[in-house]
Structures are given as C-alpha cells and as structure tokens.
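Changelog-adjacent note: as of this version, every example in the card shows the full chain rather than a window. The one below runs 95 residues end to end.
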Amino acid sequence: MPISLIFGPVWRTLNPFCTVHLLGCRLVRANPDHDVAQLPAQVGRWPAAIGLFAFVWLELVAPERVTIPILLLWLTLYTVIMLFGCVWTALAGGR
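Full-length structure tokens:
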C-alpha cells in the first residue's frame, strides 16, 4: 500500500530538494513560497513531459537499463537538474 494513502503527502516533508531550496532561500533571504522564477508561457508543460518520457524510456525501453552505471547516471542527471532549479529560484528570489 502506498505510504501517501496512510500518512498523506509526506514527500513534501521528506523531499531533500525542497530542503536544499529552503536553505538556499534562507541563505539569500528570499521567501521560499514566492514564485520568483517563471518559465515563459510558450514552454508550458514540456519540461515535465520530457522528464516523464525520459523516465518511462529508461524503465521500459532502454537496453541494459538495470545496470548500476546507467542508474547512477540517471540519478546524477536528475539530481543536477533539480539542484540547478533550486539554486536558480533561490538566487532569483534574492534580487
């Protein structure tokens, strides 16, 4: 049974990227709840669609997808992209 059905949206509390974003905002004295960096309207939902496609491709299509180097590469890319977003929004909030 999924943990969110029992305890609610716990990922908001446990997400390490949210913690990094919160710490970055506190470092530059920005409000973490304020939308400080917005993508242009023409971008729309494409970043989420591309991320979902990449994840599904890795899970279902990619050859040798269960090898440790491939999984580490995926996790590293995901982490770098998320941390870049955290830093970008924190710095944009400090302006």
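Structural remarks: Helices lie at 3-7, 11-14, 16-27, 46-60, 68-93.
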